[in-house]
Amino acid sequence: MREKAQDGKTFLGVMAADGWHEIEIQDGIDYLMAKDGGNPVQNERGFKTWKITTKVIESEDKPSIGGFVGCLVSEEKGGDLMATILDAAGLWKTICEKFPGDDVTVFDKKIMDGVKTRLPGKTFMIESRLDKAGFAKVISVASYAKYKELSAEKKEDKKSGGKKEESKKEAATAVGTGDGW
């Protein structure tokens, strides 16, 4: 028999805890499918949603290792998210070189067909949060280099007691006033 019985095994998988995790993209990138009939889910304007499954391979929260984080990307407003995922995975520069111009979208069939085969197995960093239903959802995506930069800034902010972050907020408030920005 190919299958094995595993008494007591959990099949739903572990949901990753809130925080940053090193993830690996899993096979099966495709449209989010409706439960009844198996057609892709579409919103009222006809835009579909892509489902990307990620598996936690390293995390400060050790019980999260092996857990899954759901990543749904809407074709309507998720282009920047998909581009960021592809950039963190090291694929974005190649895609932009191969498909130049503003008349191309990341969701074009010729691009997504390549994404389905080239993105699985790629690793990078994501930050997740549990939603109200208890499912881990992606809230931030970063390459390893950007994650190291963000981590260093966070450590520096902790050392300064939050004063660095407060000064950034004050500067942002000062810049954003008076001229329509």
In short:
The chain is an alpha+beta fold and 181 residues long. The chain has five helices and six strands, in the order E-E-E-E-H-H-H-E-E-H-H.
Descriptive notes:
- With 181 residues, the chain is of the alpha+beta class.
- It folds into two domains: 19-142, OB fold (Dihydrolipoamide Acetyltransferase, E2P), CATH 2.40.50; 146-181, no CATH class.
- Helices cover 31% and strands 23% of the residues.
- It is built from five helices and six strands; from the N terminus they run E-E-E-E-H-H-H-E-E-H-H.
- Strands 1, 2, 3, 4, 5 and 6 form a six-stranded antiparallel β-sheet that branches.
- Strand 3 (49-59) and strand 4 form a beta hairpin.
- 17% of the residues are buried.
- Mean pLDDT is 83; it is low at 167-181.
Class per helix and strand makeup: alpha+beta
Q: How would you spell out the order of helices and strands?
A: EEEEHHHEEHH
Number of helices: 5
What number of structural domains do the residues give?
Answer: 2
Number of strands: 6
Topology at a glance:
Blueprint: E1 19-25, E2 30-31, E3 49-59, E4 68-74, H1 79-88, H2 92-98, H3 109-118, E5 123-130, E6 136-142, H4 144-159, H5 163-175
Antiparallel strand pairs: 1-3, 1-5, 2-3, 3-4, 5-6
List keywords for this structure.
181 residues; alpha+beta; OB fold (Dihydrolipoamide Acetyltransferase, E2P); 6 strands; disordered C terminus
